[in-house]
């Protein structure tokens, strides 16, 4: 996500907690996070190679998704004896992040993984790294100038909306619901990433002859999520489906739903938090699915930086070099497959 919000360019995944991808810099309780346990490196490209130093810079963890981003990056680096992980102090201050990245350039690291607070404002320092011969793996919030990074990896905001729309459309069609009341709780409505999610949602629903009845943004915070959900529940005495873009703000949304004692609709979340997965797994919640924007993308970014720094390609591809761009699929987590995803969930 390329916006100045503490999250995916959004928060996610998972991650993105919240993107989003995606979230705000509003104060929040200190989050906890989880990452897959390190596993022994396997064969092929995972065999020890030239020792490389990988610098890492990301926003401060004011939400679970961002906390999980940092944890996933660190966990992935620990899997390799040939990697020295060199993170800088996380910050939500643009100038401080620029200074931190400049310190990594001065340290002559072999590769950089950067999740910028704002891709536009950190574009110049990323160009400086590239000019210094340091390949940059741009994580999530994209730099506008492709010369600023060697490889971009991030989530699919449009795909999140498509996945949510298809799940809701299929569920309502199977119940022969006509003219459904569908409400949408966005993150920050003015952000491109939010607009992409909403567009994907609308496009998917259209295939079933459905459309969004009402939508409101909730700023990617628990508090605002609670307020917005309360307002929507009061405005609509009957709802058939709800899509909440972000599982972090979803904590507040679910609290409002429980407070209102409403259960007549199905709800889909976004990012893939552990608490959302537990709700789905319980089988007793209106939350029946969530669509992923996983912070595991940070683990993959570290792996890609290592390969690039060592002059390797991806062993499953015929090409000799790592691709220039990798967009992760947004997967739909339901009660049927939630057990397979629990280890990847992050705590809101």
TrEMBL record:
Primary location:
other
Q: Name one GO cellular component term.
A: cell envelope
UniProt keyword Lyase, yes or no: no
Sequence segments annotated as region (Disordered): 27-48
Q: Which GO terms describe its molecular function?
A: carbohydrate binding
Instruction: Keywords in alphabetical order, please.
Output: Signal
Composition skew (Low complexity), residue ranges: 27-42
User: Where, subcellularly, is it found?
Assistant: Cell envelope
- On whether Isomerase is a keyword of this UniProt record, the answer is no
Q: Where is the Periplasmic binding protein domain?
A: 54-312
Judging by the UniProt lineage, the source's domain of life is Bacteria
| Family according to the record | Belongs to the bacterial solute-binding protein 2 family.
- Please give the PANTHER family that the UniProt record associates with this protein: D-ALLOSE-BINDING PERIPLASMIC PROTEIN-RELATED
According to UniProt, the name of this protein is Ribose transport system substrate-binding protein
According to its UniProt entry, this protein's organism is: Nonomuraea maritima
């Amino acid at each position: 996500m390329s916006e100045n919000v503490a999250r995916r360019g959004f928060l996610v995944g998972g991650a993105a907690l919240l993107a989003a991808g995606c979230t705000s810099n509003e104060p929040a309780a200190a989050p906890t996070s989880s990452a897959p346990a390190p596993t022994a490196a396997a064969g092929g490209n995972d065999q020890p190679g030239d020792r490389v130093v990988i610098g890492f810079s990301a926003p401060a963890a004011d939400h679970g998704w961002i906390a999980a981003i940092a944890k996933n990056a660190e966990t992935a680096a620990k899997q390799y004896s040939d990697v020295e992980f060199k993170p800088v102090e996380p910050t939500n201050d643009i100038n401080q992040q620029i200074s931190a990245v400049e310190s990594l350039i001065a340290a002559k690291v072999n590769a950089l993984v950067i999740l910028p607070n704002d891709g536009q404002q950190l574009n110049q320092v990323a160009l400086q790294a590239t000019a210094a011969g340091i390949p940059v793996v741009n994580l999530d919030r994209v730099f506008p100038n492709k010369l600023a990074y060697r490889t971009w990896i991030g989530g699919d905001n449009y795909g999140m909306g498509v996945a949510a729309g298809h799940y809701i459309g299929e569920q309502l069609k199977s119940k022969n619901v006509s003219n459904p009341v569908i409400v949408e709780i966005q993150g920050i409505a003015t952000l491109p990433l939010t607009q992409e999610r909403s567009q994907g949602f609308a496009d998917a629903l259209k295939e079933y002859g459905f459309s969004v009845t009402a939508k409101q943004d909730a700023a990617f915070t628990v508090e605002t999520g609670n307020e917005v959900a309360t307002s929507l529940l009061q405005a609509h005495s009957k709802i058939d489906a709800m899509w909440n873009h972000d599982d972090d703000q979803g904590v507040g949304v679910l609290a409002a739903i429980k407070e209102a004692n409403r259960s007549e609709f199905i709800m889909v979340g976004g990012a893939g938090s552990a608490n959302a997965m537990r709700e789905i797994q319980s089988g007793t919640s209106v939350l029946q699915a969530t669509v992923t924007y996983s912070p595991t993308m940070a683990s993959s970014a570290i792996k890609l930086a290592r390969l690039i720094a060592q002059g390797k390609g991806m062993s499953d591809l015929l090409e000799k070099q790592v691709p220039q761009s990798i967009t992760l699929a947004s997967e739909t987590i339901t009660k049927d497959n939630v057990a397979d995803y629990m280890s990847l969930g992050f705590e809101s």
